[in-house]
Write a structure and sequence with these properties.
Blueprint: H1 6-32, H2 35-62, E1 74-78, H3 85-97, E2 103-107, H4 108-114, H5 122-141, E3 145-149, H6 155-164, E4 168-174, H7 177-182, H8 188-193, E5 215-218, H9 224-239
Parallel strand pairs: 1-3, 1-4, 2-3, 4-5
Bound molecules: 3'-phosphate-adenosine-5'-phosphate sulfate and adenosine-5'-diphosphate.
3'-phosphate-adenosine-5'-phosphate sulfate binds at residues 81-82, 86, 108, 112, 120, 125, 128, 150-153, 186, 188, 197, 199-201.
């Protein structure tokens, strides 16, 4: 998010004054053919309008009417490993950033690097998700929206987030296990099938499908760019009118 600095406001004020006063002086000169009158009008106009503009701005700063607060939201991407969460969430993030709203991207790989000593048992995953929900909550207190992509495999883990954060939008990124195995650029399915990874979602642990997702993306039918567009339009319609 950008803040208008004082120096930028002053520069804008000066350039606008040159344009506006130049226009007034030209009109006076065209009508009356008197250069002294045109210059005098220009000087008087500058003095009067600089003061009046300042007062006008001060009054409007106190008026709340017509201002709209953008409520922070959390886009919660959930789905099997390799279903396409990161790919689509990154595209949505790029699109939403262009709207100049305060927004953060939180992906499982970054958080698991940051908090490495946590495993994948149900108990550990729930503990992990509570920390993430707390992080989203803190960002929301500062009006920052979030795009989070985690497996979020249990109904219980998604409920934790829904109860802790405002405006939670579940995006279920759907793909069959067979398809995810084909996409396995991380080699995690291969390892899980060999028994080298325990409690692997979809292989040796459950993925409880969301029953009330706000958005469902079937990645075997919809391309990443189309999916990002659907999600972007949903956000624009419901949160940034
Ligand atoms: N046992 C097990 N189960 C599921 N996933 C595993 C496991 N071990 C490692 N991985 C890799 O870690 C990613 C999932 O981590 P998450 O933090 O999103 O999981 S969770 O939400 O806490 O359940 C997930 O990455 P994504 O592919 O980004 O989903 C896996 O590649
Ligand atoms: N329709 C699709 N949507 C998203 N990803 C897709 C799609 N079709 C193929 N893929 C590929 O599947 C892989 C998904 O990986 P990734 O986004 O890291 O998934 P996840 O974050 O769910 O583990 C990527 O290589 C991506 O290019």
């Amino acid at each position: 998010m950008y803040k208008e600095t004082n120096i930028r406001s002053i520069a804008k004020g000066i350039t606008w004054r040159i344009v506006a006063t130049g226009t007034t002086m030209s009109i006076v000169y065209i009508f009356f053919g008197n250069i002294e009158l045109a210059v005098a009008t220009g000087i008087l106009e500058t003095i009067a309008k600089v003061g009046l503009y300042w007062a006008h701005e001060k009054v409007w700063q106190k008026i709340r009417w017509g201002r709209k607060k953008i409520e922070p939201f959390n886009l919660m991407f959930t789905g099997l490993p390799l279903s396409g969460k990161t790919t689509i969430a990154d595209l949505v993030y790029d699109k939403l950033q262009k709207l100049d709203i305060p927004i953060e991207r939180i992906d499982s790989k970054d958080i698991r690097e940051l908090i490495p000593n946590i495993g994948y048992s149900k108990e550990e995953r729930l503990k992990h998700i509570k920390r993430i929900a707390h992080l989203i909550q803190t960002l929301q207190k500062n009006s920052i929206s979030t795009i989070t992509s985690f497996v979020f495999p249990y109904k219980e883990s998604r409920k934790i987030v829904r109860e802790m954060v405002k405006n939670n939008i579940v995006v279920y990124v759907k793909a069959s296990i067979e398809e995810c195995k084909k996409r396995d650029y991380k080699g995690v399915y291969e390892k899980a099938l060999k028994g080298e990874i325990e409690n692997f979602t979809g292989i040796s642990d459950v993925y409880e499908e969301p029953q009330h997702a706000e958005i469902i993306i079937d990645t075997e039918k919809i391309k990443p760019e189309e999916a990002a567009d659907i999600i972007y339009k949903y956000i624009k319609k419901n949160y940034i009118k």
